[in-house]
Amino acid sequence: MTDATTTEASRSARELAREVLIHGPISRSELGRRLGLSPASLTRLSKPFLDLGLFVEGVEEQKGAIGRPAKPLDVRVDARRFIGIKVTGDDVLGVATDLRATAQTRAAHALGGHDVAAVVEAIAAVVREVAAASGTGDLTDVAGVGLSIGGNVAGRRIVKRAPFLEWRDVPLADLLERELGGLPVTVENDVTALTTAEQWFGAGRGLPNFAVVTIGAGVGYGLVMHDRVIVTPDSGLGLAGHLPLDASGPLCIEGHRGCSTAMLSIPGICAQLGIALGREVRYDEVLELAEAGHPLAVSITTAAGRALGRMLAYIANLAMVDTVVLSGEGIGLWRVAEGAAREALAADRDAEASPLQLHVDDAGFVSWARGAAAIAIEDAFARLRLSA
Amino acid sequence: MTDATTTEASRSARELAREVLIHGPISRSELGRRLGLSPASLTRLSKPFLDLGLFVEGVEEQKGAIGRPAKPLDVRVDARRFIGIKVTGDDVLGVATDLRATAQTRAAHALGGHDVAAVVEAIAAVVREVAAASGTGDLTDVAGVGLSIGGNVAGRRIVKRAPFLEWRDVPLADLLERELGGLPVTVENDVTALTTAEQWFGAGRGLPNFAVVTIGAGVGYGLVMHDRVIVTPDSGLGLAGHLPLDASGPLCIEGHRGCSTAMLSIPGICAQLGIALGREVRYDEVLELAEAGHPLAVSITTAAGRALGRMLAYIANLAMVDTVVLSGEGIGLWRVAEGAAREALAADRDAEASPLQLHVDDAGFVSWARGAAAIAIEDAFARLRLSA
DNA sequence: CCAGTTATTTCTGCCGTAGAAAGAATTCAT
DNA sequence: ATGAATTCTTTCTACGGCAGAAATAACTGG
């Protein structure tokens, strides 16, 4: 794979690639300031990326400025294609993306069961489907496949524990690479993957420190500090899913009263209204009823908003971040509960403290698959060899 | 100050100094492994420190090992002296320390009021007193003075806001440097300083990620991630001082029910028992009564322990650390409330999660002054010039 | 058209590091 | 005891990455 004239990307080269991916188009002189490098170094470092066709020199914009106009560097977003897949207990959702994890096509398959071979086959089918619907339609020009999964993942290859799939120690990357003829596959915890996507391409783009809260089947939590996504051996255990938020709230399935899952997750909220109404309710319906002013729905979503606000206060005060990104397929709650959340946040936070920046990523389910693609992109850059 | 043959310490030199300070005595080969440098580099980098007399080559220990025994590097702890000062609203406590912030002498003065000039004079008096009682007794061979203060500090020189002293925008470092004849003075928030001391010389020694919780006049919180103490513009506002921990707890002075200050601070705990007994109680007395089984004291300290356990769970889950250091002059609470705290921690934390490591620094008030000295030491190393 | 300004490239030298090999100080086996 | 093996440290040399200076380029505004 690696001939004699290529070498592993240096630290500076990797930082350059990251900066252009996140902030491009961006001029060499601006890059020099950000990375603390001289203009000379920028010329040298960017050359191999231009030669490879990964970077392009954009046209100078910004008229009116004095002096020679900059020729900003940017990634050629269609230089590579990636596929991101989110696997839940019920289905497989896939997207084909460009180099900035922008989804171009999507596809989904329902899962019949949790048998490993069957799931691998379903994933492979989704991969082939989204690949066929994008680019040349050929799998061979896909640069990588990312897989995101709710659970604990080791070394980006092995699923240690996935409660929704009832899996333990499944070498998913190996299995899928075999199935896909050697295409590089990377597996990561879903919240970690989504956090990476927000950091590189989403609402946390370029921020050195921020947290991510996801609302969906459960409540997820991710943290970025010093430009790095925090991954611990406990990542994927959903430790932020059972924070006590409301001493008079309902119980979750594990018996925690008013915990984040009971108060904020889609099943938690649906169950609360369902019990009150004596029938099953869909999540969309809860939100619609709340918007229409239905007293029970309003009461439940307002309590959820207050719980979310309190959770945000805990995060701001303990993780010491000034920005939180809200995402997940259940983030529609924000539409009806933003007021209650902001009120509770303000009550639990010092008046002199700098305000917490909140960003909502409302792409819903696609965000998860996009996160998987971001992991594949990160991996592809880590594998990159540049000519000397 | 800087002659032509000296130059600013390189990144590797600074990392070497830090590693030896934290882990010395330590052999060059072990240092090479830790810092990712070749043995050759270690020889080169450590030479200027040996020439300056800051490092010594220890005697080889550890018999029984095969091969040439290592001559471990260590800092010469008495090569420099530092002074650390903690300023509260009521008094000034100072210690003289060696290069590892080990306190050798101490002194304290009560403050009559909060007038800036008077406080500066009191600090200077404490500095002179501890200097006179240690080393040569001369101020001139003190390498630096560190000051730690409860409040918001800018640029390690200006006190932006110190509620206990009722100060705003006091250029304390400048004032004190003038008073002390140009001796370098560094000012830092007390929790940040204490956190640095724990990281370099204390219970968090060498850990890349951990949190610090202090119990004292208030409740403090510090965070270390990726080997760096997290400092935000909000540091010193005491944001973790009003976390809701017990919905049925007492109110704090700002009206938060069952917040960390109400449940855990020395005044909070004394007030609870004081109200119940109808008389003033000292903190020591509360702890003694609780140890003796006094029902009210036990009830109050047990509730405090439960609140502390819950706070630790929030920290572990949201700051994503696996270690917490407990410190502060009120940490004696741990003696009587450890059981309740650990129980509450376990209840709020997933059974599969890795256990939270807890370290108690029971040096009490001296820890605060030691923190100030650690800041002075950190600064002295940052100022260091090495011969080329 | 020319001066002023800013961006980028080319050239050269320096600094920090690694690699190889030598040297040093010990243990272990015979 | 003596040599072999092992491990640590130093010396020497070469190289990669970076900065600084100067040259070149591309624009604005008078």
From TrEMBL, chains A, B:
Domain of life: Bacteria
Entry-linked InterPro entries: ATPase_NBD, ROK, WH-like_DNA-bd_sf, WH_DNA-bd_sf
Family membership noted in the UniProt record: Belongs to the ROK (NagC/XylR) family.
Protein name: ROK family transcriptional regulator
UniProt source species: Agromyces albus
